[in-house]
Amino acid sequence: MSRHSEGAADALVIGWGNLLLSDEGVGVHALRRLERDYRFEPAVRLEDGGTSGLDLLPLFAEHDRILMLDAVALEAPPGEIRVIRNAEIRRVLTQKLSVHHLGVADVLAVAELLEYAPEEIVLVGIVPECVDLGLELSPTLRDAMPRFMVTLVSILQGWGVSVRELEMTESPKAGELCTAFG
């Protein structure tokens, strides 16, 4: 049974990761790109999960569909993108890439126990190349980012969300986003 009116997409997108550890921050990088370059109808809630865990638990009770974006440790080459659904997500996250994976697995387990589980949870994961200290994505993940974005946009569209990519003239200029660093 839907928690919201029939026909509403009611989607939440969570970007997980640590921006200080290069490719480990890919989920947050992708979320920022969604915020900057895309518009959704009906509206989609975009949440920077960072390295949070149980703090985001209430959101699982509020949304029917949750799309999570993250780096995942898989036996696959760097840049490989995988779409992982529902119960399979917890199994994949047992191979911890970072401390926040414990938090994500905990959120999923507690949400299930509290019967907060949404109708569908999807993790779009990408295998990192580098998780060393650094603010930028590796060249491999930077090159894979367009495919990563296409994958997550197609999932949203499958949920009935109309996704419009903004033209370059519609997007804010980089200097407008980062005025604090001058």
TrEMBL record:
Signal peptide segment: none
GO molecular-function terms, A-Z: aspartic-type endopeptidase activity; enzyme activator activity; metal ion binding
Domain of life: Bacteria
UniProt record, GO biological process: protein processing
Alphabetized UniProt keyword annotations: Aspartyl protease, Hydrolase, Metal-binding, Nickel, Protease
Transmembrane segments: none
Entries under InterPro entries matching the protein: Pept_HybD-like_dom_sf, Peptidase_A31
Keyword Transferase among UniProt keywords: no
Family note: Belongs to the peptidase A31 family.
Protein name: Hydrogenase maturation protease
